[in-house]
């Protein structure tokens, strides 16, 4: 079944152009980044209900609003050194992280720019968790607008690589 999903994801990239290829890269980033969620659940105060919802981050119905999600994202980001001490994105580390995935170089600059542009309007929010969850909500919306948000099937197709 997994092989079929991988084949379908590959065909999707070949037949639908760059946006689908970018979404496939994003699925790798999402799957790898998400593997730290369980480790960060307790530290961030994430309830099991919100944690379950978080697995559907890219789903249209999932609202990125809970402060605890911001705390979890901070914890998860710190596992990969993606934030500076002030809990804002470390641009170089984020570029390197994204480029570490198959074809990540095609999405690295865009993702870093999008995150940076989503951080700016929230920069005056003192509560790190609230600022990060607002940045994440903006990033999700911008990703959808640009057609790089992955579908759940794409994430599931690559998930096994990162477990």
TrEMBL record:
Q: State one molecular function term (GO).
A: odorant binding
Gene3D superfamilies, per database record: Pheromone/general odorant binding protein domain (1.10.238.20)
Keyword Transport attached: yes
Q: Which residues form a coiled coil?
A: none
Q: Which residues form the signal peptide?
A: 1-21
Q: Which domain of life is it from?
A: Eukaryota
The record ties this protein, via Pfam families, to: PBP_GOBP
The UniProt keyword set, sorted, is:
Disulfide bond, Signal, Transport
Do you know which CDD domains this protein is assigned to?
PBP_GOBP (cd23992)
Which cysteines does the record link by disulfide bonds? 40-75, 71-129, 118-138
Q: Would the keyword Signal turn up in this protein's UniProt record?
A: yes
The record's family statement is: Belongs to the PBP/GOBP family.
Protein name per Swiss-Prot or TrEMBL: OBP22
Lineage, opening ranks: Eukaryota, Metazoa, Ecdysozoa, Arthropoda, Hexapoda
């Amino acid at each position: 079944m997994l092989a079929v999903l991988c084949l379908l994801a590959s065909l999707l990239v070949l037949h639908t152009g760059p946006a689908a290829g970018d979404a496939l890269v994003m699925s790798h980033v999402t799957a790898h980044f998400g593997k730290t969620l369980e480790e960060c659940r307790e530290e961030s105060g994430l309830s099991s209900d919100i944690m379950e919802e978080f697995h559907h981050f890219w789903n249209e119905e999932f609202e990125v609003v809970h402060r605890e999600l911001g705390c979890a994202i901070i914890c998860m980001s710190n596992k990969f050194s993606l934030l500076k001490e002030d809990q804002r994105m470390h641009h170089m580390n984020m570029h390197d992280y994204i480029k570490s995935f198959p074809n990540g170089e095609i999405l690295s600059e865009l993702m870093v720019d999008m995150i940076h542009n989503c951080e700016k309007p929230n920069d005056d929010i003192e509560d790190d968790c609230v600022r990060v969850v607002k940045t994440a909500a903006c990033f999700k919306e911008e990703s959808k607008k640009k057609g790089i948000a992955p579908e759940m099937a794409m994430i599931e197709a690559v998930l096994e690589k990162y477990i």
